[in-house]
Sequence to fold (678 residues):
Amino acid sequence: MTTEAAERTETRPPGVRKFPIGPRRVVARIALVLGCVVVLILAAAVFAPASFWRWLIVHEVSRTTGRPVSIAGNVAVHLFSLNPEMTVEGLTIANPEWADSRNMVSIGKFDATLSLKSVLKFHLIFPQVTIDAPAIDFERDSSGHANWDFPPAGNGKANNSAAAPLHIPVIQQLSLANGTLTAVDRVRKLTFNGQVSVTETQNLADNHALKLRGSGKLNGKPFQLSLDGEPLIGVQPSKPYGFEAAVTAADIKLSAHATIPHPFDLAALQATFHVSGSDLADVYYLTGLALPNTPPYDVSGTLVRDQLVFKVDDFHGKLGSSDVSGNLSIDTGRARPKLTATLVSKQLNLADLAAPLGTEATPARKSNTLATPTPAPAPPPALLLPDADLQVQRVRGMDADVQFDAASVTTSKMPMNKVHFHLSLDNGKISLDPLAFALPQGEFSGTVTIDAQGSTPQTSIDMKLTNVDLAQFRPKSGKDAPLEGQLLGRIKMHGSGSSVHKTAADAEGDITLVIPKGEMREALAELTGIDVSRGLGLILTKNEQKTEVRCGVANFKADNGDLKATTFVIDTTNVLVTGQGQIDLNKETLDLSLRGQPKKVRILRLRTPILVRGTLLQPKIGVQPGKLAAQTGGAVALATLLTPVAAVLAFVDGGLAKDANCAALIGQAEQTKNLPKE
Fold:
C-alpha cells in the first residue's frame, strides 16, 4: 500500500484535522526550494559581470583588513570547470595612516585555480597559483603599532594580541616572480629590503623542486634566506611536507630541516636546527626574544610547534668553551612571549658566564693609528665593570623563567665547584633568586633584582659570603695561602643606571668582610708596619711562620658610588693592622692605605703606610713617599677605628659580636677610648 493510500484509509479521532501532505513531502519540497536557490546563485555567479566580482573582492578584503582596497586591472572568474579559476590584476591594500605612504600589499597579477573536490572534503587544494610582481611592506613604529595587526571586522581598533597559527591551503604548483619585501621595525631597530622568488622545477631527480630565495639587509648587514622544499605537485593535507631552510644574517648562521605534518597548517611543525654566531643576544633581531649576551655560541636542537607554543627538548651545544644542554619552551600566546628553560652545564668555564651576568671587562678603545697633524686624544681608561646599556625595550617585551646549574666549574682566578641561578623576568622586572657560587669550602649567594619598568633601571644586590675557607686561595707557586681562616661577608647595595658601571657609580650601601679567626703570614703582618728588621728579613729568608688572626673586619660604605672604608682592622698576635681610604666606582680608582700598629716596640721600624693605588683592573701597591716619621712606641688610640666594629659584625651575622676573638676586639675599642694619643 502506498503512503497516499494509507493516509486516505487511516482512521482519525473526531475533531483531529488531517495534514494535507506527509513529512516526507515536506522534506522533498524544502530540498527542491533550496536546490532552486543554489541553481539561481550559481547562475548569477556564472553570468555575473566582472564589476560584480571586483566589488565583492574589494568589499570582503577591506572588511577583513580594515584598510582601503582597490583593483586597478581586470577581474576574471571561470566557474564552468572542475577547477574554477580566478584572475585579479592590480590588487592593492593600503597601509594605515601612520605608516609609510606606500601600499602594504601590491600584486601585479594573481591567478589561482581551486579544486571543487577539495571543497567537498573541507580541505582546500589549489592545483595552481601564480603571483606576479608582489610587493609587501611590513612596518612597526617605536610605540609598537604594526601594520600587520588588523582590527576585527567592524572594529576600528587594531588587534595586538598574538595571532593564531597561519593555515595556508595546499598549493600544488606555485610560481612567484619579481617579488619584493620591505620591512622597517623601529622596536627591533632593523630594516630589510629583499627580493623573493619561487620556482618549481619538473626535475624528478631533484627532491628539492621548490626553491625560494631572499636577500637584503638586516641592520645594515647582509641577509640571505634560502628555502628548498619537496615538490608541491601531489601534496595532500594528510601527507607530511618537508623542506630545508638556511638563514645568514651578519655572523648568525641558521640551518633547519622542517616537516609540516598536515600541509600547510603551520599550527603544528617539527624541525631540527643548528645555529651559531658571536653573541646569542643578536638573535633578538630575528626572533624578538631578549636573550642574554653570550660568548660565541654553537647550539642545536629539535623544535616542535603546538599552536602558539614552541618547545625544544634536546637543546645542546657550546657557549664559548662551556657545554650547555636542557629544554626550553616559548609561549607566544600571551601579551608578552614567555621563555621557560631548564639548562645544565657539565663543565662551565666561569669566563663564559661573565657576559650574561654582566661582569665582563670592557676592553680599552683603540686609538687612531693614522698620522694626523694634531695628536689623537688619549683613549679612555679600560673599565672592569661593563658599560653596555641594558636593552630595556627588549626586557619589557618578554617574560622568562630560567633555571641554570653547572656541575663543574673551571676558573683561573679562584677555586669553584658549582654555579646555580634562577632567573625570572616579569613585565620588565629581572630577578636572580638565588644566584649562588659554591666554593670547595664556602658559598657566595644571594639575590640580584633589576627593575627596568621606569625610565632608568633600578638594581638591588644582597649577597653573602658564608663559611669560606681562605686556605683554598693558594698562590700559583703551590705554597701555603698568605691568609687562612674562615671568611664571612655581605654586599648590600642599591643603584640606578642603564649599565653595570653606571649603576655602581650611583650605588648606595655596604660591603663588609669578616675573619672571626685565622692565621696570617708573619712577614705580611710585620710589613704593614714597615718593620725593616723583621718584615723584610722574614720575606728574604722565605719564612713561612704564621701569626694568629684574632679578628679581622673591613667595612666600606657606598655613597653615590664612592666606597669609603669606615672600618678596616685585622688584629694579629704581634700587629694590629688598620686601613683607610676609598674606592671611586665611577672612575674605578683605588686610594687605600694599610698601617700596622706593633704591640711591641720594634727597632728600625718606619712609620709609613702601605698604599694601594691604581685602578680596579690594575691596582698598584707601594710605600707612601716623603718624610718618614720614627716610631714613638706605646699604645695608639684606636677608638675611632674600632668603635663601629660591633655594628658591622651584626650587619654580616648577629652572632659574630659574641665570638670570643671579635668580642675582645670590641672590648679593646672601649679600653683605648681614654688612652692618650701619640
